[in-house]
Amino acid sequence: MMDKLKLKWKIFIFLLAFCGVLLFILWLFQTVFLSDMYKIIRRNELHEAIELVEENIDSPNLRDILLKLETDKSVIVAPTRDFVKPETPMPDGRGGIRPETITETKEFNLQDGQVISLTFHAMITPVNATVSTLKIQLYIITAIMILASVVIALVLSDVIAKPLARLNEGAKKLSKGNYNADFNGSGYLEVKELSDTLNSAAIELSKVDELRRELIANISHDLRTPLALIYSYAEMMLDFPDEITATQIQTIMSETKRLSSLVNDILDVSKFETGAMKLQMKEYNITESINETVERLSELLRNDGYSIVFEHSEDVHVIADEAKITQALYNMLVNAVNYSTNDRHIVVRQNRVKNSVKIEVVDHGEGIALENIPYIWDRYYKVDKKHKRAIIGTGLGLSIVKKIFELHGAKYGVESEVGKGSVFWFQLEAK
Ligand code: ADP
To answer: Is a pLDDT exceeding 70 seen at residue 202?
Structure first.
């Protein structure tokens, strides 16, 4: 309410100041400068009359011109020797006060060589009466203008303030966490633009908020389990220091690892979601890169009976973010390992498909039921929540994979059959 009042008053004061300046100028011209300006105008008229007579001095129309000058312009022209200053009869008959006049004498050369002298005489009517009329008019104009200022200030502030007040209502709702607040600012372009901006800001905020809620709900669960395990093992080790086993230490270590990979995944997901993840595109040898990843992982898992083989015929170069593509491939490989059953043989296949290269990760594990396939790419989606894994999974793996391929504009997908295994694949444009 205060702000609205302020705007109203501000506009009113501006308008008033504007009117004041206008009225001052008007007053200056109408009263102070009036008689001076009038004299200047009369003098000009006198000079124009002289020029007119000079042009027509030999013309037969001269008499008409002189007559017209007298009637239209109140300029009396007479031969200088005959000239007698005309007197205006004073209304009270005193005749004492002479009206002001401008008089000029000029000599003209006639065609026949004669020189005549003419006196031009312009009457100056007293302006005092006019001035007092104008003054009254000025008072009236002033009153009208002040009234108009008030009305304009009221109307204008209403037009400006109403849409802003509406936007403010929405913004208040938004600040209380109501992201459905619909900003409906119409009235003029600036407000329309502001409301569009606020609307998209509300949508962005709601996205971030939703992600935050989801993450906190899921993560707190995932963090609690390994933390509880670590704590109980540490407690046991404290109570029975003589009975510390390698398994206990191993458990603490693997749970710690699980925690840190969870934290990394969460950071990745939030970076992808907020759009803070930027790809570092450059040309590289994807065949070589895949080979390294496969070798590293198969080395790690050899003792557990897993074998990972990379099948490829040629070296292919792509333009992509190597670290991200490696991360995606790694996540797919980790899944292939995690969801393998008795057959622990995993194949990574590289094929040229026209101008692109297709990478497949083939496992012979449990497979995914058709109805679950659309959901596996979602954050935290797990088909079976109680699965035992060789490598720690967070349920975020495939959602990160999906984001990476989407950012690259790459095709990706999965073909799977329950009991037989899955083929996760992606396709990048080859250089
Ligand atoms: P996580 O593996 O940590 O649970 P992901 O996002 O990597 O999370 O995978 C989501 C779900 O998709 C998994 O829980 C699993 O049910 C299913 N899944 C992923 N990869 C495979 C695979 N190779 N074989 C069978 N199921 C899979």
So the answer is: yes
CA-nearest residue for atom 8, ligand 1, is 395
Q: Is the pTM of this model over 0.85?
A: no
- Pick the residue whose CA is nearest to atom 21 on ligand 1: 335
Residue 119: strand pairing partners: 78, 105
Is the shortest distance between the CB of 334 and ligand 1 below 6 Å? no
Residue 428 Cβ contacting ligand 1 at under 6 Å: no
Token output for 3: 């702000």
Half-sphere exposure in the Cβ direction for 136 (13 Å, CA): 5
Superfamily assignment of 278-429 in CATH?
Histidine kinase-like ATPase, C-terminal domain (3.30.565.10)
- pLDDT for 87 equals 65
Residue 391 binned pLDDT confidence (cut-offs 50, 70, 90): low
Residue ranges in 182-245 assigned as alpha helix (H): 189-239
Instruction: Provide the total of helices (H) and of strands (E) in the chain, helices listed first.
Output: 9, 10
Q: Is the pLDDT of residue 93 over 50?
A: no
The CATH fold assigned to 189-272 is Helix Hairpins (1.10.287)
Residue 349 and residue 359 in contact, taking contact as beta carbons nearer than 8 Å: yes
